[in-house]
Fold this protein.
Amino acid sequence: MKKYFALQLTTDFRMTHRVNIRNSSAYTATLIILLGSILLGISGCEEKKYATPQAEEIAVKKVNGVKPRNVIFILSDDHRHDFMGFTGKVPGLQTPNLDRLAHEGAHCVNAFVSTALCSPSRASILTGQYAHTHTIVDNQAPMPEGLKMFPQYLQLAGYQTSFFGKWHMGDQDDKPQKGFDHWVSFKGQGVYYNPVLNVNGKQVTYSDSSYITDVLTDHALEWLKNREQQKPFFLYLSNKAVHAEFMPAKRHQGKYKDQKIDYPPSMFLTATDTSKTYALGKKQLPTEKPLQVNLRDIPEWVRRQRYSWHGVDHMYNGQIEFDDFYRQYLEVLLGIDENIGRMLAYLKETGLDKSTMVIYMGDNGFSFGEHGLIDKRHMYEESMRVPLLVWCPEMIEPETKITQLVQNIDIAPTILELAGVEKPEQMQGMSFTNLLQQKQVAWRDKVFYEYYWEDAFPQTPTIFGVRTDRYKYIFNHGVWGINELYDLQNDPLEVNNLIRNHDYDSIASGLRNDMWTWLEETNGEQIPLKRIKGRKNDHLYQGTY
């Protein structure tokens, strides 16, 4: 914080000097007042660990002896952590290229996002910061001035950088963003077929059933072929897929039309007399032992959300059936997997396959009936947990399993370390390159979570929480309801809320204290409010102000 004040002093000193240079007495008085104000600010303000001065210019500190590594970061939208062929979660699901990344590289088994929502998560990936720090807390929040993203550091370190796909962070525009030498994007969520792309500031329209996942990969491969060969590169491929409403490539349509669906056991715990679509006679996923369920302490907001846009009994306002929804998701995934295969093939053809690191990740998970919910936003495993695969034959042993708790805020410092750049002070994540090489290092024992209530989807409250390798504490804020505590070792489906069980009081209070300490130390105690425009859009109160 003292560094910040010193910097601001220098800036304000110069401004005052320019204005009052002919009036030395006024200049002196102004300087005294300014110094006094700053000293009072220093003595009266508690220093925050991650305060980030927006006026500070980006400075790159290089690490000696590090050879900059090429990095390809591939992001998918709403891909849950276990919907990959090698996990065995979905019988018959074929993802040979994702499987290859896992078998020939590292699978981060316990990878999480700090906010399970597109824009906040993407901002956390790019900044290495929590949502309340970078302030892009929902899908409408503007991108603040002075926000620093890791590709900017890569540029200063001599990298050529490129971005392809869905930006959807801070605004709905498609204009080129800082940190990238080459830019291909689209507005908002984009479309699956015949997109309109912003290619380095020029609008390009596609037709003839051009499929977005294929088109973006085409652009990425073209850039790789024409890049400056002598420079290291960073390529960010940000897919629209697999965001709803799901539209698979024509070659994949109907591939899983006969897929048998195993319904999660927790899907039926919130069922009511009006839940006519689903019954306990449906096939359910088997459990290793009988479920111990605490029906009493399922939060009321979870029960009510069952009949909402994000609930299985009224999903997307009844526009699609659950079974079709599920199968189309699997088919859209095939386009992601095939295009990863195209990227790997190019690396092999050009001899880049050994030394280039490929990172694959989802921006958040996705529910398919667990707790009677679909979509994301909440803190249950299927929402906050994501796939994270890292492939680099030169430095990662095949079949590496990383069990430590890794988060989206760790991506930025990890890539910077690979580039030989020290982690900037404002980044709150940690590099996990040592974990990829299976080195024993000190690491976190818990991850934190935040989600802020949205007017567009009012059925989910503001949520804070903390997860260790065994326990999860969920603080449901702003509703008259109960909080949650789960023993994930004995209750991986999160159906036995232990919050009333006094045998767990010390665990619950300890985790809650950790959560509040985290918010205090990262300056996250203020719930950000954004102006709400327009009428309500939810199905219960639609059209009202």
